[in-house]
Design a protein that fits this description.
Radius of gyration: 26 Å
Mean pLDDT: 82
Shape: elongated
Number of helices: 7
Number of domains: 1
Strand content: 5-15%
Number of strands: 4
């Protein structure tokens, strides 16, 4: 796999006409010139948290990176919401085993708690799902409202459903955006070189491109995991509903 490497920052002066490609195979430290090891900083990549791209000086590329960041950050936020509310639902009905994070187990506990008065099921509408609560006898049906804990469970399921759907949709869009960036790396590098007005600015923008592309790769890996887990939640809901 090719890696972004800033070539301009190791040049002795602006007067040299020789340019090294920004996208070259990664070399071992032992094969790199001492000047390269000294002057080229190593971009850091955070393992979690939002994606914050750095400006690379090309309007089209800056907009593409911004679109990736907006989509990924929305997906990450929705993923966190999904996990948080699954935990909350499990804790409400099974405080001793809230770490299980199993939607199936949560619904089973809800059914057990209210099996004498209500028929509890998950209902699917496309990729949306909700908790259906149906009274089993006329006395229960005549009550003013559904018990508080059941209403809370319905609210939690609605939030989980919306978050899971958002995570999956964002993952599909993000994959398309990131694939374009990864397939045009050398072209992007050349655009950044041409856009820089000075040697110093060119070095700075190339380093920004290196760091941002590393963050894009991090986002891709996290996004795949988020999308997989959200899809599993949807599948689990479908299984509980008896549709799978």
């Amino acid at each position: 796999m090719s890696a972004l490497v800033c070539g301009c920052c190791v040049c002795p002066s602006e007067d040299t006409d020789e340019r090294q490609p920004l996208l070259v195979p990664k070399l071992s430290e032992s094969n790199e010139p001492a000047s390269a090891r000294k002057h080229r900083p190593t971009p850091t990549v955070s393992q979690s948290g939002p994606l914050v791209p750095k400006r690379v000086g090309v309007n089209d590329l800056d907009q593409r990176f911004s679109d990736v960041a907006e989509t990924f950050n929305q997906q990450q936020e929705s993923y966190d919401i999904m996990k948080e509310h699954i935990t909350s639902l499990c804790r409400t009905f099974d405080s001793n085993n809230a770490s299980s994070q199993s939607l199936t187990e949560c619904v089973r506990k809800i059914r057990e708690e209210h099996e004498e008065d209500y028929r509890i099921t998950i209902v699917m509408y496309g990729y949306d799902f909700s908790l259906s609560v149906v009274p089993l006898n006329s006395a229960t049906e005549g009550n003013v409202s559904t018990p508080h804990r059941l209403r809370l469970a319905q609210k939690e399921l609605k939030i989980i459903s919306h978050a899971a759907k958002t995570v999956v949709a964002a993952g599909t869009k993000l994959q398309e955006l990131i694939d374009w960036l990864l397939n045009t790396g050398e072209q992007m590098a050349e655009q950044v070189r041409e856009a820089a007005p000075t040697h110093q600015e060119r070095c700075r923008l190339e380093e920004n491109l290196i760091g941002t592309m590393q963050e894009v790769r991090r986002a891709r890996e996290l996004s795949l995991g988020y999308r997989l887990q959200a899809g599993e939640v949807q599948t689990e809901a479908s299984q509980v509903a008896g549709l799978a």
